[in-house]
């Protein structure tokens, strides 16, 4: 059986409803959507997304990343994006296997398989797309296939995951993976600041504090932060704030003024301006439209996206 057809068959058998589904394999999730979805905010954590069927788009800043069975996506750090399934139907649903990336395991593999010549340490964007190779797809099929043999998972899953990481490390997009594995890489220095921002997004933010956390000069910090996230630190923080405010209003029916205050805005008017700039309409109207759509089941496939963490 063709590897891609086999992966579609395995995922389709194990996920019958739309959403993100954890599995018995640690770090592995299966994702399904039977319809295209409207762009929704979500934070991509360090993950490999391998699409078996359909197509999805992730907007990071103004850059669109479209991935499908021919292209896999790597997210190297925590990034707030606008994600939408752009090709799916009930007959041919969007199906994806997601694997959390273990930097400890990656670090060990980098030590065992160094490059003949180390490339520059300046980071590229925190999201990368690369061609899905037959070898990577074959390993993904064997990993997903373990869901049919749960007694084998404890012994065999770590071996297959290690093979997948090796394929990523030795493939065309290895630069971003190697930077994830190196504790002193610019990518990981920026990742420290991102981790702090995710935990303190509703607090006042001093750039000098972020610079100190990253251990970079002020100019280098701004340059590398922009390269990784496509945003300035304040734009990044505001995206986190607005994503959480939207979630509060839609899923907890918090009013706009309270949502803005809870995510760190002192000025309701500034909150409304920023919100409308990001989501295209004032917060109260946007939340009402989304709650109405949820009530009618129109956002059934995107409900899991109302979160500051995926």
Structure, described:
The chain has 310 residues and is α+β, with helices and mostly antiparallel strands. It has a domain at 3-181: Sandwich (Jelly Rolls). Helices cover 47% and strands 19% of the residues. The chain has twelve helices and ten strands. The protein has helices at residues 3-14, 103-112, 134-145, 153-170, 174-181, 186-199, 207-214, 218-229, 233-251, 256-262, 268-279, 283-295, and strands at residues 19-22, 28-33, 40-44, 47-53, 55-60, 63-67, 71-75, 79-87, 94-100, 127-131. The strands form two sheets. A six-stranded antiparallel β-sheet has the order 1-2-9-4-7-10. It has a four-stranded antiparallel β-sheet with strand order 3-8-5-6. A hairpin with a 5-residue loop joins strand 1 (19-22) and strand 2 (28-33). Helix 3 runs antiparallel to helix 4 (153-170). The protein is globular, with a radius of gyration of 20 Å. It starts with a helix and ends in a 15-residue tail after the last helix. The model is unreliable at 296-310 (pLDDT under 50).
């Amino acid at each position: 059986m063709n590897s891609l057809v086999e992966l579609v068959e395995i995922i389709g058998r194990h996920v019958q409803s739309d959403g993100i589904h954890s599995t018995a394999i640690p770090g592995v999730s299966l994702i399904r959507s039977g319809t295209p979805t409207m762009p929704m905010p979500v934070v991509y954590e360090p993950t490999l997304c391998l699409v078996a069927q359909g197509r999805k788009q992730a907007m990071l800043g103004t850059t669109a990343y479209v991935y499908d069975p021919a292209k896999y996506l790597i997210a190297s750090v925590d990034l707030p994006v606008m994600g939408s399934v752009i090709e799916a139907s009930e007959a041919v649903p969007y199906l994806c296997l997601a694997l959390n990336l273990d930097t400890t395991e990656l670090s060990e593999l980098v030590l065992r398989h160094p490059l003949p010549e180390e490339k520059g340490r300046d980071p590229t964007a925190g999201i990368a797309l690369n061609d899905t190779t037959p070898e990577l797809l074959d390993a993904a099929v064997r990993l997903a296939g373990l869901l049919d043999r749960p007694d084998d998972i404890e012994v065999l899953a770590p071996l297959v995951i290690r093979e997948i990481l090796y394929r990523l490390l030795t493939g065309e997009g290895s630069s971003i993976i190697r930077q994830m594995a190196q504790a002193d890489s610019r990518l990981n220095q920026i990742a420290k600041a991102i981790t702090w921002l995710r935990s303190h997004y509703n607090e006042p933010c001093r750039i000098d504090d972020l610079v100190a956390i990253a251990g970079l000069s002020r100019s280098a910090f701004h340059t590398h932060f922009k390269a990784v996230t496509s945003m300035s630190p304040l734009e990044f923080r505001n995206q986190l704030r607005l994503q959480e405010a939207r979630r509060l209003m839609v899923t907890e029916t918090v009013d706009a003024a309270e949502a803005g205050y809870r995510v760190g805005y002192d000025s309701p008017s500034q909150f409304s301006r920023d919100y409308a700039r990001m989501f295209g309409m004032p917060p109260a109207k946007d939340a009402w439209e989304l709650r109405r759509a949820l009530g009618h089941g129109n956002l059934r496939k995107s409900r899991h996206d109302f979160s500051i963490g995926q």
